[in-house]
Amino acid sequence: MFKPTIEETTFALGDRRIRRLGYGAMQLAGPGVFGPPKDREAAIAVLREALKLGIDHIDTSDFYGPHVTNQIIREALHPYPESLVIVTKVGAVRGQDGSWLPAQEADDLRRAVEDNLRNLKLDALDVVNFRAMGNPHTPSEGSIERQVSALAHLQREGLVRHIGLSNVTAAQVEEAQRIVKIVCVQNHYNIVHREDDGLIDALAAQGIAYVPFFPLGGFSPIRSAALANIAESIGATPMQAALAWLLRRSPNILVIPGTSSVAHLR
Question: Catalytic: 80?
Fold first, then answer.
């Protein structure tokens, strides 16, 4: 029976080597990632079960809720095990109606980092991704020098250990790398949404992690007859097959599927 090596099942994120299958915490908030969950105890149970199953990488943000998801993570898991890496993102806030609004000035980014620190009850954040919002739904060109420089300043203050990027183009990655070390890129990518093929390969060559958000389609789950047929032929669910494809696609891919159900998590 095939047994993957430790190099195949783990990858470097900053100064840590973590398992490539992580957990995305977005679904722990209420509908539309806004407000509290219907069942807070169930959300807490999912997080605790994730760690029992060996998850050592949680992706979150203080604009999930807002504040709700990080507060649930703190309640469920603090004090955190040394093996756990918590990755958050900044660059947006939520409107009163649940809308996603850019918050990209230096003061906005400092406030967001401080909010994450407070709600997660941490002295420093393991990894902070800057979420570009030129186009909220897809990467769009435009300088991100000011924002990355602001995060680099917070890193020098000791509030941030490592910096990543989200919703960015290859040119923006190169611009950011001229300012500070970038440890990961988080963009929309999955088995049917493959615009970042070239970027993934370029990052792999540099030993930089690529973390696809919406690995299973996000708010519009992947539906494919071909995927369903492949999954059936190997005795898996379509979602398991879609995640396996990502893990096989490139060794630098870390996947962060999310769920609010313990059964679904397992």
Answer: no
